[in-house]
Design a protein that fits this description.
Chain lengths: 415, 446
């Protein structure tokens, strides 16, 4: 295997075997799927600062032989999308999108292919570190004493997303294309491991829906930080894309002034939902619930009810149950989506529904709500006021979050 | 998102209920507000006051007891150097969005990172040692035998840090450590001649009372004073907390104000400890010699607390030491792991983040076991000696900071100006000179 560290500080000799300098860096052109080495940066007086890779004739044992004389060497013509591997990539943090974590580049793996040299992998292991310290052999020998070998920990360049929020290395600032294809919970995990600057850069590159999902999965600190830094329009767009209960929880943690600003920028419908939810205490069923649920009058038939569902296009988390209410919004019954679909189209809803609905009051404690959901094996539980009128629903995922220790969520990553 | 038409009717009715709920919400918000404020107290303030830990308290007490007001003037250049150093670090954090060890890794590569890590581990390990000396000293004053005190505390801290709510723990310790504000009150109660204090502050002098045999040298004491006020770990933490908050270059001036006020406050507290001990201990037989026990240091609070001086001192020392002993091993393990890209999180299992846990436990245990082995007689010597080590290692970190703060690629127009370079440069050269002199004189004196 060839590594960048094999090249750095290698001697550069011309066609007459005269040493012209030492390799300072390798310059690549970013490309899909792999970047190609296009030039050498050289330290030494007898050569220009950069040399085109095309004049390299051979390289082995820390020596690079050129096919021309030192006098004929010309400065490499810089191209816009070029990147200096040692300066811009080595030792930096990157996102391993397969392993879903932030890692540091200890070395870079290169490969020869059709006469050109490609950047194919990133070494993130101890072996890469030891290689940089010229201690790879010592390390392996020590490890062999205990009957093993130091494993190579390489990840493919395919699976890498570079971070560079730094304006001064714009060339590497790509669209976080790979990152945005990950599950929002995993993006949130990665975002949590980064500094504030990288976080903002990542959120800036995600579209509203993914940004909203990622924000929902992030810790409160990250949420507050991101929302206080994004510009108002963008922050309001992301809030609208979030479910109202999550948006309300998030807004509740912001300073009042900022909260009012953001709500004012949101669409009227979403803003109203959020404001209603904000009125409930954080540690109650009211604070936990979402206002996205499906409620229909008892007078409909099964077929009419399904038609109504089509009109409403409810979100995924609110479609588990269909609630049946009277003219005063009082909860009469509940039926599952399954009940609706398997029923004869003409059957009245009133005959299908379960009349004894399990519900919780708006001021119930979150642990109790979770307890009810667990006891009755529900996917969601309706929240009612003192007059039995439905106010919202608490879904199982939100209930689970309140009773699960923070550490367990993180550990789920290792599975 | 679509909502059922039925909910529109519901809303009207809900609005009436909303007014009542608003009241409840407002209550929540008021307390939420206090919580939020606590969360955003400037990193500069917290970090600078973390300097008033066991090492700091013993060093400042010793300075006042041994030299009276003769070293007070050094606080002026020390404050200037502290502000300039912290400002560079805050600027690096704001502009790059990266931690100090991260920048060292990215700018200087693996070898220098290894070197810097060893320096940081040794300096912080020394400081952890000082904290355990503080814990041992404080609990000793309250009648707890030394091995029980330090080993018990180490076990408790390991469990608290790895398992419990660290925020809450930090606040309890921070509150205990605040008892050191009592030095300010005491300083006024002993009625110092403020004219003398002002004179000692602004007129530099190299004269000092004759040192008794066995006392540490003047050079050592100056390095120690610098090392305990401007510690290597402060720079690391300040930058990390700025990065965590995502403070940007647009907010650089807030960060600067925070650094200046935090540094000034910390140095003020330090000066009041020196003034108090200069008027309580210095005239009573401590001149020219080193404090030999925590009990002696506690006597400085007698004018304020009378016979309870020992208890007051013990509580303050215990809080400050426990806070630092809880935070230091963890953050040291964290920055080192981050620089090497190793897995790091309190929530990981041991097998997932071996380097992190090994470093954490090693720092904690080395501190506790060393103090237990050295015995109660060496509490003050350990607490102060480790600050000398901090002072000796500080120039190494300063050189890294200076190079980074001058890097055009990194900071662009935010890189160091001539004033910064002049102050930090002179400070680094003077401190390196003192350190070299100390090392050479120690070697040749043998």
């Amino acid at each position: 295997m060839i590594f960048l560290s094999d090249f750095l500080r290698a001697d550069v000799v011309d066609v007459q075997q005269r040493t012209v300098g030492k390799v300072r860096d390798l310059i690549v052109r970013m490309g899909d799927p792999y970047p190609t080495v296009i030039a050498l940066a050289v330290r030494g007086h007898a050569a220009p600062a950069t040399i085109d890779w095309s004049v390299v004739r051979a390289w082995e044992n820390r020596e690079i032989s050129l096919g021309v004389t030192a006098a004929d060497l010309k400065e490499h013509e810089p191209v816009p999308e070029e990147v200096w591997l040692g300066r811009d990539v080595l030792d930096k943090q990157i996102v391993d999108t397969d392993g879903r974590r932030v890692v540091r580049v200890n070395d870079l793996q290169l490969q020869q292919s059709n006469g050109s040299v490609l950047l194919v992998g990133v070494d993130i292991g101890t072996r890469g570190l030891l290689r940089r310290l010229n201690a790879e052999h010592v390390g392996r020998r020590l490890r062999r004493l205990t009957g093993g070998d130091l494993p190579q920990r390489l990840i493919s360049w395919d699976a890498v997303d570079t971070l560079h929020s730094d304006e001064r290395s714009v060339k590497l600032r790509i669209s976080h294309r790979k990152l945005s294809k990950m599950h929002p919970a995993d993006i949130a995990e990665i975002v949590g491991q980064l500094g504030g600057r990288d976080r903002e850069a990542i959120f800036a590159s995600l579209d509203d829906e993914i940004a909203a999902d990622t924000l929902e999965e992030s810790s409160e600190e990250v949420q507050a930080q991101i929302l206080s830094r994004l510009d108002d329009e963008r922050a309001a767009d992301i809030l609208e894309a979030m479910s109202p209960d999550e948006a309300a929880d998030l807004l509740a943690d912001l300073p009042e002034e900022r909260r009012e600003q953001l709500i004012a920028k949101m669409e009227a419908d979403e803003a109203q939902d959020v404001e209603e939810l904000l009125a409930y205490g954080e540690d109650t069923a009211g604070g936990l619930m979402t206002t996205e649920y499906v409620a229909i009058p008892a007078s409909l038939t099964a077929a009419e009810a399904i038609d109504r569902l089509r009109e409403l296009e409810p979100d995924a988390e609110s479609i588990y149950y269909v609630y049946v209410i009277d003219e005063d919004e009082r909860l009469l019954g509940v039926l599952s989506l399954r009940d609706l679909i398997v029923a004869q189209p003409t059957t009245p809803i009133a005959d299908l529904m379960i009349k004894r609905v399990i519900a919780v009051p708006v001021d119930a404690r979150p642990e109790d709500v979770a307890g009810v959901i667990a006891k009755y094996n529900l996917l969601a539980v309706p929240v009612v006021d003192d007059d039995d009128r439905i106010q919202g629903i608490v879904t199982i995922d939100d209930a689970l979050d309140t009773v699960m220790p923070a550490g367990m969520k993180r550990r789920a990553r290792a599975l | 998102m679509k909502t059922p038409p039925q909910t529109t009717a519901l809303r009207r009715r809900a609005e009436e209920a909303v007014a009542a709920r608003r009241e409840r919400r407002a209550h929540h918000r008021r307390f939420g507000g206090v919580r939020r404020y606590l969360a955003i107290i400037g990193p500069g303030l917290i970090v600078a006051n973390a300097g008033n830990d066991a090492g700091g308290i013993f060093t400042y007490s010793n300075t006042g007891a041994k030299y009276g007001l003769h070293l007070l003037w050094t606080f002026v250049p020390i404050l200037l150097a502290l502000i300039v150093t912290q400002e560079m670090v805050a600027r690096l954090g704001c502009v790059t969005g990266k931690g100090l060890m991260d920048l060292i890794r990215e700018r200087f590569g693996v070898r220098w990172t290894l070197f810097a890590s060893v320096v940081v581990i040794v300096a912080n390990g020394g400081t952890v040692l000082a904290e355990f000396a503080g814990i041992g000293g404080a609990l000793g004053l309250l009648g707890v035998p030394l091995p029980v005190a330090v080993l018990g505390s180490a076990a408790m801290l390991a469990i608290l840090v790895l398992r419990a709510n660290r925020r809450l723990v930090e606040r309890v310790f921070l509150a205990m450590g605040l008892t050191f504000v009592s030095y300010i009150v005491t300083a006024f109660m002993v009625h110092p001649r403020w004219g003398d204090v002002a004179h000692a502050l602004v007129v530099p002098t190299l004269s000092h009372p004759p040192l008794k045999p066995g006392a540490t040298s003047y050079t050592t004491d100056v390095i120690t004073l610098i090392g305990t006020t401007i510690t290597p770990y402060m720079q690391l933490f300040l930058q990390s907390s700025i990065v965590d908050k995502g403070t940007s270059e647009k907010e650089l001036n807030y960060a600067r104000a925070d650094v200046i006020s935090g540094s000034t406050f910390a140095v003020m507290v330090a000066m009041f400890i020196v003034i108090t001990t200069a008027y309580t201990l210095f005239p009573h037989g401590f001149a020219g010699q080193d404090l030999s026990s925590a009990a002696d240091a506690a006597q400085a609070l007698r004018p304020l607390a009378g016979d309870h001086a020992t208890q007051l001192f013990a509580v303050g020392l215990l809080g400050a030491s426990l806070l630092a002993a809880a935070v230091l091993p963890l953050s040291t393990a964290f920055v080192v792991c981050e620089a090497f890209g190793a897995e790091r999180s309190v929530q990981s299992r041991f097998g997932e983040a071996p380097l992190f846990f090994v470093l954490f436990i090693l720092l904690l245990l080395t501190g506790a076991v060393t103090v237990a082995l050295l015995g109660p007689g060496s509490i003050t010597a350990v607490a102060i000696g480790t600050q000398t080590l901090d002072g000796v290692l500080l120039p190494v970190l300063l050189v890294f900071i200076l190079i980074l703060a001058n890097d055009r690629r990194l900071l662009g127009r935010y890189r160091n100006g001539p004033f910064n370079n002049a102050v930090a440069g002179v400070f680094t050269v003077v401190l390196s000179g003192l350190t070299t002199y100390l090392v050479v004189s120690t070697l040749t004196g043998l």
